[in-house]
């Protein structure tokens, strides 16, 4: 939850790093400028310090909405000792410089469960529903936001709500034609599943909310209102780590230090922070800003119940060594998110996203058809803490277990324009006649440990599954006993040791017969594992690029180029005599279709590239493994014949 605190921050439809021409932030329309001025004044009235920032149309790209901009230059010193310190040496370690704060927003002005439960009209109802577990914390925040929207100008948050987007580019809001652009991807099924869950929740909430709004004299809420509140929360919400006193970063350092006396209690609040939520995401170059919750220090002599003068603040701060010029848009990071997460939550996808991943499922028969072996597989998976699915980053980013860093040469191969390792042709990826089209320059296959564990569970026979289960149970008992005795043990290694084919090829001529047999048995398991992996990848490639998918990667690349050219060209003019409002709506709908198509293209292209890259390496690995096994089997047969003579 703490790791997700910074990751969940941001605006719904930021298009950071977009290749399309950037929007000009300087001039908002008269109506929008008035709304932004009212927002600025409202934030100040709530106790926010926004003297150094201003909300304006974002530069992040089409569809990015509003962003937060610096109105004055600022810079933060780099950590460390200044160059002149040798002239005036000080005793002890240098103190860390105070973070440079660009803006601060009171936690009391955020929409959280605390806000809902302290509402003069609704507080008792919210407290009762949460106590009875009818609402969880996040749903309570969404429901309260929905009610504040229905309150209109009477809402305490009206100036902020008026500046929020009315539509979103996330898949759960896609029209069927837009959703068809995600065929064959994991996101297609995820969007359908989330929509079903949302409708189930709405069917449970609709009647009570209608009764509640009737009592308040408000309009009846609709499905569209509920969907809007959901999208606002997930695209702009934060998990706020609130320490008992001091800054959240200092409190987290105390928790990680292992010193019990330094640990400051931290409470995680889910909520929306008006003002901070206008900060957009940027991956490259690094964002200038980050945020944290700061609670005024309580005097040591004060009683625990003694109130502090000022309440908790959410501060927007410059990173150490960061600078911001007047007029610069201020960016934060949503975290190391894949395009799947970015598109699902925020409505955009990044080209060449280093955090992208490919999700693979291990197909399971209906539970009614499970036999003892399948039950044993599932039980072992659960004992490992795994599921019959896994996530694959780009193969260049998987660290070799022995070296602890990416395989030498892998990153270079992946960066070459047109490299077969980065984006091989369909024939190279899927293979013709079962042969891989990779050459000897293909980097070695290194599977993440949890992927190897999952795959091996599905190729072990019943006896091997039983042995693994008993071994794991014994190791867990040892760890429990060691933990009780206060003697830590190393982490349990679940998967088989990595097989280095080059090392095996050089060592097997000196192996005895028993060692050869053992090595061949291990290699047989690895061959079955890689074969299963290849089959899953081939099915994924067919899902993505086959007749039920969205076509080849090359076709997507051409479509993206055409779309970018069309986006840079002037939009189609409305028919002469058409009303201005209708023309504006038509233009906005055309822009929205282009944004959604582009985001879907960038996302699904990344999925196809990952599937192809892994498939090429897996097939090359299998070919090399089979070649070494043939040589070792020949050596084994020679030794057996020699022993019989």
From TrEMBL:
Coiled coil recorded as keyword: yes
InterPro entries per record: SET_dom_sf, SETD3_SETD6_MTase
Coiled coil: 580-642
Entry-linked CDD domains: SET_LSMT
Transferase recorded as keyword: no
GO molecular function, one term: protein-lysine N-methyltransferase activity
Key words of the record: Coiled coil
Superkingdom, natural source: Eukaryota
Region Disordered: start-end pairs: 415-438
Protein name, per record: SET domain-containing protein
Organism this protein belongs to: Astrephomene gubernaculifera
């Amino acid at each position: 939850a703490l790791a997700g605190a910074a990751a969940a921050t941001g605006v719904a439809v930021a298009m950071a790093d977009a290749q399309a021409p950037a929007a000009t932030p300087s001039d908002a329309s008269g109506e929008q400028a008035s709304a932004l001025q009212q927002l600025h004044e409202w934030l100040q009235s709530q106790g926010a310090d926004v003297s150094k920032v201003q909300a304006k149309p974002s530069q992040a790209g089409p569809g990015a909405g509003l962003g937060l901009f610096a109105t004055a230059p600022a810079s933060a010193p780099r950590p460390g000792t200044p160059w002149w310190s040798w002239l005036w040496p000080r005793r002890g370690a240098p103190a860390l410089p105070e973070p440079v704060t660009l803006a601060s927003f009171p936690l009391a002005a955020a929409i959280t469960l605390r806000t809902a439960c302290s509402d003069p009209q609704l507080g008792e109802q919210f407290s009762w529903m949460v106590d009875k577990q009818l609402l969880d914390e996040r749903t309570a925040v969404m429901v309260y936001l929905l009610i504040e929207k229905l309150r209109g100008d009477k809402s305490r948050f009206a100036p902020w709500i008026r500046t929020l987007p009315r539509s979103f580019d996330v898949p759960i809001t896609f029209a069927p034609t837009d959703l068809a652009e995600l065929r064959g991807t994991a996101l297609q099924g995820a969007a359908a599943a989330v929509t079903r869950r949302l409708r189930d929740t709405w069917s449970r909430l609709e009647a009570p909310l209608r009764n509640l709004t009737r009592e308040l004299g408000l309009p009846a809420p609709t499905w569209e209102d509920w969907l809007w509140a959901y999208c606002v929360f997930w695209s702009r919400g934060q998990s706020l780590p609130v320490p008992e006193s001091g800054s959240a970063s200092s409190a987290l350092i105390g928790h990680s230090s292992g010193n019990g006396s330094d640990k400051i209690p931290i409470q995680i609040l889910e909520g929306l922070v008006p003002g901070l939520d206008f900060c957009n995401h940027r991956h490259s170059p690094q964002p200038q800003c980050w945020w944290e919750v700061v609670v005024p220090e309580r005097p040591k002599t004060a009683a625990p119940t003694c109130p502090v003068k000022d309440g908790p603040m959410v501060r927007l701060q410059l990173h150490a060594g960061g600078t911001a010029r007047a007029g610069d848009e201020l960016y934060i990071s949503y975290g190391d998110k894949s395009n799947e997460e970015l598109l699902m939550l925020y409505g955009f996808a990044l080209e060449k996203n280093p955090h992208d991943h490919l999700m693979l499922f291990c197909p399971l028969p209906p539970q009614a058809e499970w036999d003892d072996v399948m039950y044993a597989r599932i039980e072992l998976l659960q004992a490992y803490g795994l599921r019959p699915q896994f996530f694959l980053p780009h193969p260049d980013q998987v660290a070799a277990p022995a070296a602890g860093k990416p395989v030498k040469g892998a990153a270079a191969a992946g960066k070459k324009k047109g490299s077969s390792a980065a984006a091989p042709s369909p024939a190279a990826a899927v293979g013709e006649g079962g042969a891989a089209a990779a050459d000897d320059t293909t980097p070695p296959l290194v599977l993440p440990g949890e992927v190897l564990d999952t795959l091996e569970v599905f190729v072990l026979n019943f006896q091997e599954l039983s042995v693994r289960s008993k071994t794991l149970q014994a190791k867990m008992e040892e760890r429990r006993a060691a933990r009780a005795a206060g003697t830590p043990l190393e982490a349990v290694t679940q998967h088989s040791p990595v097989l280095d084919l080059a090392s095996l090829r050089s060592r097997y001529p000196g192996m005895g017969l028993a060692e050869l047999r053992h090595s061949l048995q291990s290699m047989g398991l690895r061959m079955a594992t890689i074969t299963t992996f290849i089959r899953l990848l081939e099915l994924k490639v067919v899902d993505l690029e086959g007749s039920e998918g969205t076509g080849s990667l090359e076709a997507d690349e051409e479509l993206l180029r055409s779309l970018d050219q069309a986006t840079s060209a002037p939009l189609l003019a409305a028919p002469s005599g058409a009303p201005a409002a209708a023309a504006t709506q038509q233009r906005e709908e055309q822009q929205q279709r282009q944004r959604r198509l582009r985001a879907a293209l960038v996302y699904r292209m990344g999925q196809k590239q990952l599937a192809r890259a892994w498939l090429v390496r897996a097939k090359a690995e299998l070919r090399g493994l089979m070649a070494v096994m043939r040589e070792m089997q020949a050596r084994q047969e020679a030794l057996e014949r020699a022993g019989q003579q």
